[in-house]
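Inputs:
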Amino acid sequence: MRLERFLVNAGKTLAVVMILLWSLFPIIFIISSSFKPGREIFAVPPQWLFAPTFDHYVTLWQRWSIFFQGLFNSTIVTIGAASIAVIASTCAGYVYSRTSSRFLNASLVFLIAVRLIPPIVVTLPLFPIVNNLGLADTHFVLSVLYATFFVSLGTVLMRTFIDQIPRELDEAASMDGATMPVILWKVITPLAAPGILAVAVFVVVFAWNEFLFAFIFTSTRAKTAPLVISEMIGSIEGVDWGVLFAASTVQLLPVLLFVMAMNRYLVAGLTSGATKG
Amino acid sequence: MKTSSLWRMMPLLAPTQLLLISVIVIPSIYVVWLSFHASTYGQAATFVGIENYIRVLGDPGFHSALWNTVVLVVVAVHLELLIALGMALLFNSGLWGRRFLLVAVLAPYAVSEVVAVAMWRFLFDQGVGPITVLLNALGLPALEWSYEPSHAMIMIAVLTIWMHLPFTFVILYAARLALPSDLYEAARIDGATRLQSFRRVTMPLLGPAILVALLFRYIFAFRMFSEVWLLTGGGPARTTEVVAVYLYQEAFTYSAFGPASATAWIMVAVSMLLASGYILLLRRQVKNAA
Amino acid sequence: MSYETAFRLNRRTFLGGAVSGLALMAAGPAFAQGKTLQVLSHRVHQTSLGEGDADMLAAWKAENNADVMFTTLDSNPLMDRLFREASLAQTDFSVGYMVDNRPTSENATLFEDLRAYQDADPIEDFDDIAPGLVQGMTIDGRLIGIPVRTATQGLFYNEELLADAGFDGPAKTLEELVEQCVAISAKGRATGMILASDLAVFPVMFARAFGGDYISQDFTLLPDPAAMEKALTVLADMFSRGALPRSYATNKGEELLTWMQQGRAAYSVLPFARMGQLADPALTEYAGKIKVTAFPGSETLAADTAMSSVVEAWAMTIPANAVDKELAWSYIKEVSSRKNTLGMALNGNGPARVSTFLDPELTSKNDFAHIESEVLANARGAFPPFGEAARAQQLFLEEVQLTVLGRKSPADAVAAIQSRIQPLLPA
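Outputs:
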């Protein structure tokens, strides 16, 4: 019995170590390598103790100023996308939570079904349309695209969260003569904050990291950080791996810390979004 | 509520629906039109009927892209599900530092495809990659992903699993947490072994969550683009090309908008097919909720 | 798990964030302000103009109060991007570098006819620019690009690695080359040869070593199928005997330089002009040991037939939808001057001006100028331009890769190349 217990515990510990290695090793490796002097990145076996250097960050700053412009663009696009998605899905989520009709049910199915169209499908026709509207290579177009591909999930999420807010609160406000936008703004929004955060986490992570749309719809003015990194992968000459790792670290850390801080909202969003609709 | 109040709520519904209609629905319909025409840069579209569809469906390149996609979806998604299920049960069995572990498991979710590709390319670099070096030192064969198509597929599958495991795991873990513990209590009193209670209690009750996770991942894995494009570019010798990469090449490398649009609609059709089960499920839930 | 409202978001904070986000978005496009000329090119075009203190455009920039911003990509993605940009309602790229095997009657209409610009504000001594190259950029009577770079392929070798394996000089025939590469790989210090698998250039060179070709200038596909079969046999043989790296199928054009700089390969096929980056001690510890010569023909090649190397030319174009065409032409004119053509040549750019090859300043600096001009005399493009050239190249490379990796016999690959590419050729 004691042996069995020991074995079970040993097995669990081993499994936990494997899980940690699998999830974190690549990330830690990239981050630590970005502080290694050029040649030590390739050292065999990998060096875990080394004198950290900021050389690669200096090179990144001097030679790849475009990367920092990419970060700036990513920030704008991400804030824009999150704002649009949050506002649109809070409004729609409220409607779906508080009313129901045959039409609304059908439109909810439509909402989800549309989301099944792979994004790459719409790149082809959107490309000339976006151009003719003079919107190519703008932050606006990326924000709208990213928001659109998350309003479905966002709406379903917000509906779930708003469902948990007692209707009595709206009704009481309504008795006091508050109009619907006022109710939504003054009563619902504050109480649905966790839902709003959950939606925001998804959109932020997606918009910050997205590659395909950025690849097709931007060229110089709105080029995002992931795109600059992909160009760095393509034009690497030998020992530049260090610079690439430095750029990856700078791009990765903010959103990694954000996800870690917001993990409970992410989990809440994933579970209610996936299981409820 | 009454219809009149529904109309009053329309402005609230409008932003979401407008976004979806203008960004996804209308362009998709335009793709249908394009798919029946031949066009390229500097050339007006001419109607060609279903020729584009015939051409794509008859192209061996498309067949292999479709086959590769199916293989990746089937292998990667199911493996991912098994790992996620194992992890969910492990987490549920009581672990020290669960909160921290959960955050660690979620970490890959924050990593962009581009950075993930840079990571894994370096780790598995055939000359200097640390994992390659380690495997060689242990006398094990390394992944020759630029030579062996099967190894390249393994690389892509590993990358996909790494990036999406957090998603599948969270869904299954949450579902497992929601199972009432008195059921297990009852099973234990009835003298069920761990294995029996897993088979008789856990599996049937987790069924819906597993199904949801699977469908989600089928649909998303089917449209996989960046992983393949950035990792292998479809090589060696186009043996790892997937449908989305095929579409990109037709559209933006060969500037053949007709066949590209036909490919796009074939993708939509397959996605819908994959999803029809999910939609049925959803409709039932909407009905129940109503 | 409980995700109750442990956290209550302050509504005002949220609104503030959203509003400032939207405000930033509106202000966004103003980021890249000022007079900036956007150029879409390969990295090599940027480096040959010099950077930092050695910037050859410094005076031009000051005079025009303009800055030049390059966006650089590898060859194939660069062409995808250029045509996509040119098809827009408007593009920020006022100058795009185009390779000579891509313009066709259809896509040439997307670019300005530069003849009018040349008549109004002529480039210095325009007739000095190789007439054949100018001809290649004249589509349906419209001059769409000003030639700026010739990339003639030569055989680069690392003397130290050769000596290490007991060879005192580069191979004189293709057969000898193969044996040397095999021996060098067997020695274990470096791979015999590094080639890229994403460009038609390399299999075309091998086919020409046997007197064959991929697509001739008059659009004959595989004018000598037996020669192509021999070429593929040699490549597959090199791969199976370790003379090419195992990673062959994913090696891209950009990587060749890195492999040579790091001494990971003894031989490679690169444009002569790349010597600049292979002779610079700051970039490689093998500076001075890396040499270049002509790519050898097979010993079976008839004595009176010269090995025809591949030459690729790049030209500067102005997309018809560009924002600042005047500034673009001013840039093109400046880059094309005699002085800058020489300056770029000294930085390792294959010149487009005939006179530059003979310039004493260049010939005294590089001892291979005479080899390059001899090779150039017999060289021609990898394949002529046509509408489906990109697709044809992809199919060709797919068959080549399958053969080299040993998944298809050379004979089957040749048959497949014929049946798959023939329908794509212009009638």
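Remarks. Chain A has a mean pLDDT of 86. The domain at 56-276 of chain A is CATH 1.10.3720.10 (MetI-like fold).
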